[in-house]
Amino acid sequence: DSTEGALASAVTRAGTIVPSDMDVFTFDGQFGEHVVVNFAKTNGGNSFSPQVVIFNPNGTVAKDSGETNAGGSLEIPRLTVAGRYLVLIRDSSGHVAGSYNLTFFGTPGR
Question: 43: which of 28, 36, 99, 100 fits an S-S bond (Cβ 3.0–4.6 Å)?
């Protein structure tokens, strides 16, 4: 999927999800970094409910938006470990197609 890959801070990525699809992005987080992932549904009608999950470098869930109707924001005020994080976006039911915008912001820790 051409929408997947490394995220750069303050760059919006546009993508489309088809049934049973998910897009996976990565970012290399630093200890103490403040991270925000904003996402918004841009197409897909009322049935498309985007869900974003951020995974820690060890594979555990750091943040999960749950089911949303329009989009939202996930924030991790301070990363507790450095490494490669995964950001997954999909339809919460896995059965509906839709489009989205996703923007990552990473701010170095103080």
Answer: 99
